[in-house]
Amino acid sequence: MIPRALLVAASALSLAACAGGPPPEIATPMPVLPESYLFAPEGETQTALADLLPRGDAGFDTLAAQALASSPSLAEAAARVEQARAGANRAGAERLPNVGINASVTGSRTNPGAIGANLPPGVTFDTEQVSYAANLTARWDLDLFGRLRAQERAALARLDAADASARAVRNALLAEIAASVIDWRTLEARDAEIRSDIASAEELARLAGVRERAGIAPGFDRVRAESSAASSRSRLAALESERARLLGRLITLTAQGGAQVRAALAQGEASATLPAPPTALPSGLLANRPDVLAAAATLAAEDAELAAAARSRFPIFDLSGAIGLLAFGIGDLFDNQSLVGSLAGTIAGPLLDFGRIQAEIDGAAAEKQAAFAAYRGAVFTALGDAEAGYGLVAAADGEAAAAAAEADSLQRAARLANNRYEAGLADFLTVLEARRAADASGERAAAARGRAQRARVILWQALGGSTLS
User: Fold this and answer.
1) What is the pTM for the complete model shown?
2) Is pLDDT at 180 greater than 90 in this prediction?
3) Does residue 17 belong to any structural domain of this protein?
4) The domain that contains 264 carries what CATH number?
5) pLDDT in tens, 337-373
6) Distance (Å, whole) CA 69 – CA 383
7) 118 located within any domain
8) Is residue 29 classed exposed, middle or buried when 0-12, 13-18 and 19+ CB atoms within 10 A define those classes?
9) C-alpha–C-alpha distance, residues 121 and 118, integer Å
10) For residue 267, what are the domain limits?
11) How many structural domains compose the chain?
12) Structural contact between residues 379 and 292, judged by C-beta atoms closer than 8 angstroms
């Protein structure tokens, strides 16, 4: 009789669940990407993605290693991964039996009046009683409809998303360190160029002073040459504020002291070459970009959460049991008569919830739609970053080449004007104008080269980054 009633109840619960219909279908088509990048160089290149970073610079290598070992942002990201891993472990453990153990000592006292005073002769009862118990219990959700399996899939996807987010933090950290080191090397190159300008202006002032003392040139020529040198000195002094800013930024990124950062920067020097941009395909962003991977994992998690919410309509089948000892005397606890046990099977499910579960399903469906929109946004953000990265490299290379050619031409013109002045074939104004045109041209060329190196770091990050090994 009881099994038949249980079967009837199970059938009723299953039919009630199925009456709600399947969960809503949320289309998640793969975004269509172009076959190639618009600004990518034509033909194959042998450049590895990691070569876009200043890996040959000992300063960058040291600071990057220090940051990877002690950066607070990386430590926080690693903790988020461990938190997600713990959630995945918990979700997996929910599918296994839950076994427990307990022990108790219970004392009770009964009022004799509750039984009555007119007991048959020879019948007595203890008004005070102490019981001793120890039990081993177990409970297991059979998960016949896969609700717990769906929740475990969601937790594992959250772990993948946390891992991808941690990789994104690592890439951003390395990119900022690389950019800061490049800016530092650019400051060193600008410093050298400005000092060269000062030396040239001082030599011109010295020559003008000689001619002034000889009475063949006015003192105004010397003053104008000295003002040119003073202008270069003011540009040189302005570099110190930029150095202080970069040093502070690197202290924050690497979690090192200022002296350690300064010592690391003193080890290396700027790279003499600009590596060609590597060949890559837009489809590679789906497998390499950490933010795209994190968005895809979040979408998978929301899909599993929707499945778990839909399975809440179905009944839960539980098996539970206990085996233990129960005695009313501590000495009788291990007698055969004290052995007790129980075994039960339960079924429970929604019958009339007045839309509660449907609301959860609708909410999970909306979360999946939002996750899909975020995934598409991440894909096209990655595509835009990569296109811009290739375009920046091309534009910065063109600017660097033009600035270097301009500096070479203006420096050569300044030397020729100076030679003609010394030979008496040109006046001082011609030399001064040539010198002013040449001043800062070398600094501009150094800054343009730094921007070209920085553009490669941007491209490295846009394509998904890579390991430094």
Assistant:
1) 0.84
2) yes
3) no
4) 1.20.1600.10
5) 788 888 998 998 888 888 888 899 999 999 999 999 9
6) 31
7) no
8) exposed
9) 9
10) 31-110+126-462
11) 1
12) yes
